[in-house]
Amino acid sequence: MGAAEVEAFLTYLATERHVSSSTQNQALSAILFLYRDVLAVELPWLDGFERSKKPRRLPVVLTVLEMQALLKEAEMAPPPIGLIIKLLYGTGMRLMEAVRLRVKDVELTRREIIVRDGKGGKDRVTILPDSLLDAMRAQLALRRQWHEQDLALGKVDVWLPDALAVKYPNASREWGWQYVFAAKNYSIDPRSKAERRHHIEEKQIQRYVKKAALAAGIAKPTSPHTLRHSFATHMLQAGYDIRTVQELLGHSDVATTMIYPHVLNKGGKGVISPLDQFLQAD
To answer: For residues 46 and 32, which has the higher predicted lDDT (pLDDT)?
Structure first.
């Protein structure tokens, strides 16, 4: 089969099977891999097929009361999972940004967290809630104890990004580069074969967020990313401008942030239903 048949198949996926845009793209990538790396055949540029339309979906956002109920249930999670859940909502960080947080990027005095290498490879600064300062100090104190133990056992080495381990050979042992939320147990790095602490497993956070949402009676599908959506929406609800929220979330384009006003109460426009107007008139 050549380019015409491949394009016909991709069009069939969109028009007959009604697959999503991501599924069609996955099929295209698989076909290109098959031809290039297995069959050693170069296909010409494929642009003569109909693409699946990517639906514009509103994010799932919890109300303030739902968020309070979820956080109350999260109090029963083992440490530091409850703290991480609060941090996700209180800062707007993504899940992996939180679990990969390094000691040097927590600014207790300035009440800031520096998010390194976020989506798109960008750094940004977000807020550290005052209500979490004591919990963060306690977590750092515990983490410092583990660090001293790791030094004594010779297992303090931590993974460094961007080949920094070559440029700064001793940095992986320094306190500032350690994960704030490290795993309790050691593990073997599959590449270096070194035994050391990795960061806490992100799946633990996902499980406890779902568990807390069910215990709180929340019917909406709730994940750690829902807390980020809720953070943005509640910030706008509190009167903060869209640009401030954009910077805290790390969005390159304000158009990405503009989805949140659409999920505010009354559509973000203060619209009153004609039914309510009719009842008020009576």
So the answer is: 32
Q: Which residue has the higher pLDDT, 238 or 121?
A: 238
pLDDT on residue 41: 85
Check 102, 199, 228, 234 and give the catalytic one: 228
- Active-site residue among 89, 179, 208, 260? 260
Active site residue 89: no
Q: Structure tokens of 195?
A: 């035994």
> Annotated catalytic residue: which of 86, 94, 100, 102?
94
Please state the pTM of the whole predicted model: 0.79
Of 208, 237, 229, the closest CA to residue 61 belongs to 229
